[in-house]
Amino acid sequence: MLSKSLMFNLHHVHPHLAIFTKPKCLYPLRKSSIPTTLTTTSISPSTSTSTNVHTIFHKKCNNNNMLAPMSSSQFDEFHPDPSLTNDDLKPTTIDQRNFSGWEMASLWIGLVVGVPSYYLAGSLVDLGMSWWQGIAIVVLANLVTLVPLILIGQPGTKFGISFPVLARSSFGIKGAHIPTLLRALVGCGWYGIETWIGGEAIFLLLPKVVKTSSLSQSISWLGTSPLEFACFITFWIAQLAIVWKGIDGIRELEKYSAPILISLTCCLLIWAYVKAGGFGHMLDLSSRITNLEFWSLFFPSLTANIGFWATLALNIPDFTRYAKSQHDQIIGQAGLPIFMGLFTFVGLAVTSSTKVIFGHVISNPITLLGEIGGLLTMVLAIFGISLATITTNIAANVVAPANALVNLSPSWFNFRRGAILTALLGIVCQPWRLLKSSESFVYTWLVGYSALLGPIMGIILVDYYLIQRMNLSIQDLYTLSPNGVYYYSSGYNLRAILALVIGILPVIPGFLQNVGILDSIPKSFAIIYNNAWFFSLFLAGGLYWIISFLKKKQEKIDPLLPSSS
């Protein structure tokens, strides 16, 4: 389910830096290629600073007037601090830019077609909305989410950098650990949820005698049965085989899974239509709540649905850094609202049809496929649910936490090690408790974590587009030099951290009430919580812009004042 400027008035932001003209595209140059008209302070090549001749940039634009990606040979000119990079964190080269528009779209199809998406509109109907109101909210939320997706995806494609590296530009070289680890925490929770769903598919395969044994009885302290937990662990282990192949394996998985998932979804829709004699029952699902009650549910429901992909909107550079061009990343992502609208329609249509077919509503697609019966159906069901779960889980919930851990300690973590730790934390989150009801899933989990991601997104967007003016110093993103543009105060941008904390604080009372810690809170805090993503994004982003503006104004008055934050 956002980014910094190298050349935006460098003299006033960091007076110790040399003054350069603002380029549209930036490239590191060798000493021998420095223009004779430009002079810099002579510094030892071993010193990694912003004024080092290795950090001089010049224009070298492609036809799209965007930064051309580094070629393999250009890494010879790239001298990052070893503690800040490894092969997973370096900017992507031309050879690595192989995601076309179709492959980006395939990524989203694989992400959308899954059990949690199937639940979304149905959860809103369970709360009393009509079928079209549920779908409309899902589509509207994804149209809103599409904006930050494209905006934050832009620096990923332009500079070839991942989300943790992008976060260094706004939060500081060391401060970037704060937003990346918060994003990783949410990813671990989602990894657990998706893995639990895959485990339910395995449970569906088991013989009836096993499913009715004492092992299927729930244990209070565990919150589920030993048998279901064992199925969860089995699916948990099976996913690691895909993760082991890295980003190329994920790309191939998403690319070839998309048409299969579309076909299986169409088969399920056709089956429901034929068996129920049309979708008349779904169309008869009118609202069971008053207009006042609808609007009281509208904003928290919209926030929850934005929160559904707010996770990936934040770390989308992890994928757009592999896109061939800006056109490919934009076209590939533009289909998200359509994909979500169509798939939630399928979920609602099939769920409402079960009332006619079986005499009672079956909202869980795994339970539904078990009721249909038949060996072929069972095989297709297990294959389809497993494929849908894996394509969503690995792309959305492994890449971001794994990269955050790599950023935390590049010398010890690589993508594989980060993915394994992510999977372990997914167990700790106890996803079976999060999915126990529609209300806890929508209002506690989805709304709750959107309060963490909203302010991070607001700060990065303001920093990259309004303060940095879409220019970044790649060299300074990989240096611990105190003279680096993004070193700020001992590696932390205190302005961004302050804005983040203030953006989160007003949402905490509402969250504590929803988890049962507080019995009651003032109405104002309830309204803030129901609009957590919007409120925290604009509060943190706006505050960060004001503080940065005042800081820049102060530095203009006294250009010799050291820039420390």
From TrEMBL:
GO molecular function, one term: nucleobase transmembrane transporter activity
Main location as per UniProt: membrane
CDD domains hit by this protein: SLC-NCS1sbd_YbbW-like
Subcellular location: Membrane
Residues spanning the membrane: 105-125, 131-152, 184-206, 226-244, 256-274, 294-316, 336-358, 441-467, 492-512, 532-550
Any GO BP annotation: nucleobase transport
Keyword field contains Transmembrane helix: yes
UniProt keywords, alphabetically: Membrane, Transmembrane, Transmembrane helix
Gene3D superfamilies given in the database record: Hydantoin permease
Cellular component terms (Gene Ontology): plasma membrane
Entries under InterPro entries matching the protein: Pur-cyt_permease, Uracil/uridine/allantoin_perm
Record membrane topology: Multi-pass membrane protein
Coiled coil regions in record: none
Keyword flag Signal: no
Family: Belongs to the purine-cytosine permease (2.A.39) family.
PANTHER family attached to this UniProt entry: NCS1 FAMILY PURINE/PYRIMIDINE TRANSPORTER, PURINE-URACIL PERMEASE NCS1
Protein name: Purine-uracil permease NCS1
Taxonomic classification: Eukaryota, Viridiplantae, Streptophyta, Embryophyta, Tracheophyta
